[in-house]
Amino acid sequence: MKQVPYVASAREISKIYGSGDTAVEALRSVTLEVAAGEFVAVMGPSGSGKSTLMNCMAGLDAISSGEVTIANQNLDFTNDRQLTELRREQVGFVFQSSNLVPTLNITENIELPFLLAGRRPSAEERAWGHQLQRMLGLEQRAHHRPAELSGGQRQRVAIARALVTRPAVVFADEPTGSLDSGSSREVLELLRQMTDTLAQSIVMVTHNPSAASYADRIIVIVDGRVTHQLSGAGAEEISGLMLTLEESR
Ligand SMILES: Nc1ncnc2c1ncn2[C@@H]1O[C@H](COP(=O)(O)OP(=O)(O)OP(=O)(O)O)[C@@H](O)[C@H]1O
């Protein structure tokens, strides 16, 4: 097995949907290497390939060429069992909709990844789940069901569920896309805190320049290629760049 110093990486990956006249080249030789404890935002116009990149890096969608690693392992897209195990053990997901199970309480929703793996959480894993609830301000809500929470609180549960298995990397696709600005800020501050205090690596797809400004690094994808990389950029600088890109299309 090849050893690489990144928690997740895509090297010169391409992704072609379909074939012949209807083929769509969604990614063209994209490289993204995510270091331990790094928070990366992926931006770009609609249809530029952001979700495709995330899905390929998370082992949800097969690449057409190149190489993807998670936790030092090359993903073998012909091996469903390896992909499922790697995703279960090393990847956390947060989506725009928190996708909680309505009949389970908050603690049970957070422990869901263990149940889906066909086992009960260990005492240490349970304790970690409780600690995450405290860190995310959910300790008073342990026995509530998702319907009794606000959108921002539900998204915090989704973050705790993504982190409970101590994954190498969390992929977040528009995690604040359906939240109001106050709840968005809260969720982004918590994601930032997870990187700063737990060295949790995060890759977040977003359209929103203020959301992206919480990241250490921003990569911009246009027509399936990485065209820009920014480090420590503020919302205004990011907005300016996105505006220029929209105008030049
Ligand atoms: N399953 C699919 N089959 C065929 N084409 C696809 C498929 N998924 C995505 N595409 C195409 O690949 C390109 C990139 O799509 P992708 O969803 O990755 O873009 P995106 O940047 O995430 O867009 P958005 O910001 O609108 O969510 C688009 O042209 C899209 O139409």
Automatic annotation (TrEMBL):
PANTHER family tied to this protein: ABC TRANSPORTER RELATED, IMPORT ATP-BINDING PROTEIN
Domain ABC transporter positions: 8-248
InterPro entries found in the cross-reference section: AAA+_ATPase, ABC_transporter-like_ATP-bd, ABC_transporter-like_CS, ABC_transpr_LolD-like, MacB-like_ATP-bd, P-loop_NTPase
Listed name of the protein: ABC transporter ATP-binding protein
GO molecular function: ATP binding; ATP hydrolysis activity; transmembrane transporter activity
Position of the signal peptide: none
Record's GO cellular component terms: membrane protein complex; plasma membrane
Keywords from the UniProt entry: ATP-binding, Nucleotide-binding, Transport
Annotated organism of origin: Scrofimicrobium canadense
